[in-house]
Amino acid sequence: MIIGLSWPVLAHVAGWAVAAAKTARNKEQRRVANVVEHAGIIVSGATRLNTMLVEVLKPLQFFEPSEWDTSRRAALVSEIIILPEESVIVPRVRTSSVALETHLAHLVDVDLSRPVGEICASSKRLFRASVVAYDPLVEEDGMLRPLHVDPELLESRSLSLTRDTGAPYGPEWDLGTALPKLLPLIRMADTPGDAVCLRAIAEQLISEMSTDPYGTLIVPELQLSFGHVIAAQQRSFPEMPPPDWVY
Q1: CB neighbours of residue 123 within 10 Å
Q2: What does the pLDDT read at residue 214?
Q3: What is the Cα–Cα distance from 136 to 114, expressed in whole angstroms?
Q4: Could you tell me where the DSSP H helices lie in 142-191?
Q5: Would you place residue 28 in the very low, low, confident or very high pLDDT band (cuts 50, 70, 90)?
Q6: Looking at residue 88, what DSSP letter applies?
Q7: Environment class of residue 22 by beta-carbon count within 10 Å: exposed (0-12), middle (13-18) or buried (19+)?
């Protein structure tokens, strides 16, 4: 997977924005179109980043030491390290987050301002939330080595993610900070116990970042709030073309 090379959504946004501007009859409708554009970029970007992160981690769910040579391990570690440097989606999402907050101050329709405010709050959490994974390493002779875990003891060990500073958990794109202990384990895991430990961590991370519609994670929250934005837009500006590019 090549990270940050392109994001097709941007090409669709440009054409949609022109069409939306042409159908707007006044300043308020133009503002609604701008709000939908920036909110849609945030939702689409967060959804895509979540998918990218799951795609990077998913091979670890089936990790077998004998099937992972040095080059394959190094390639996955590189992907995890590179992900925070994603250079297309993240900057655009950040820009839209700032723009959307500016528009929020001028919205008078409560049915629109409420979900827009929720999206603004969630987008801040998107880049602020951090996770701390179970530390799979122990120090032996001054060197960090994988902790050999008995599969039967996994349930009694603290493999669950913790919420840093009490902030609600959300997808964390800064993997270089969030999962530093995972990288040495990928490089060095070589026993059945190591493999079970690594698979368990990967499965839990992917589960935590899933898009369960009944969950409380950031991506589902964003998608739900965006639905309310569209409902409000349909009442005040029904002529606006639908933002099909979001999903």
Answers
A1: 27
A2: 36
A3: 42
A4: 175-178, 182-188
A5: very high
A6: S
A7: exposed
